TrEMBL record:
Name of the molecule in the record: Mutator family transposase
GO molecular function annotations of the record: DNA binding; transposase activity
The protein's role, per its UniProt record: Required for the transposition of the insertion element.
Pfam family, one: Transposase_mut
Length: 170
């Protein structure tokens, strides 16, 4: 996938979803060890530099590699999409570490559409989707909270990816 994305957008930085990587790691581990594994992996994806992340991952592999080699292999195979993370500003990390907000919206839309089965017209389907989205924030106060959280990240994105965001606003 990375080759396909980079062929269209050559300056792309691919970053894997850390939450999904953690969830996939837990598939290979016993439930009793999940908290310990998560605690050992946290210094890996919160490391300030790529070198520090690699050191923490080496420690993780030494601790858990014998018991759960598939978890170590999973992180090794995803390492190219994990290492851009430490280079990002803290505000960018908060935004890109997970796609759960997007997934939550998609789940709400799927649930609303599935409950109705079929629609007499495209307009009816669009109204259903609109109502599902509006029900996420019935009082209308979420937009103010959302934009407040994104302002710092937007500033960090503009500085990190200089020229890419301002070019789209022209």
């Amino acid at each position: 996938m990375s080759e396909a994305v980079e062929s269209v957008w050559p300056r792309t930085v691919l970053q894997t979803c850390i939450v999904h990587l953690l969830r996939n790691s837990f598939r290979y581990a016993a439930r009793a060890d999940w908290e310990k594994i998560a605690a050992t992996l946290r210094p890996v994806y919160t490391a300030p530099t790529e070198e520090a992340a690699l050191e923490r991952f080496t420690e993780f592999a030494a601790t858990w590699g014998e018991k759960y080699p598939a978890v170590v292999k999973l992180w090794e195979s995803a390492w190219a999409e994990v290492v851009p993370f430490p280079a990002f500003d803290v505000e960018i990390r908060k935004v890109v570490c997970t796609t759960n907000a997007i997934e939550s919206i998609n789940a709400r839309i799927r649930r609303a559409v599935k409950a109705r089965g079929h629609f007499p017209s495209e307009t009816a389907a669009l109204k259903c989707i609109y109502l599902a989205l509006m029900s996420l924030d019935p009082k209308g106060t979420g937009r103010a909270k959302w934009t407040g959280r994104w302002k710092k990240a937007l500033n960090a994105f503009d500085l990190t990816f200089e020229g890419r965001l301002t070019a789209t606003r022209r």
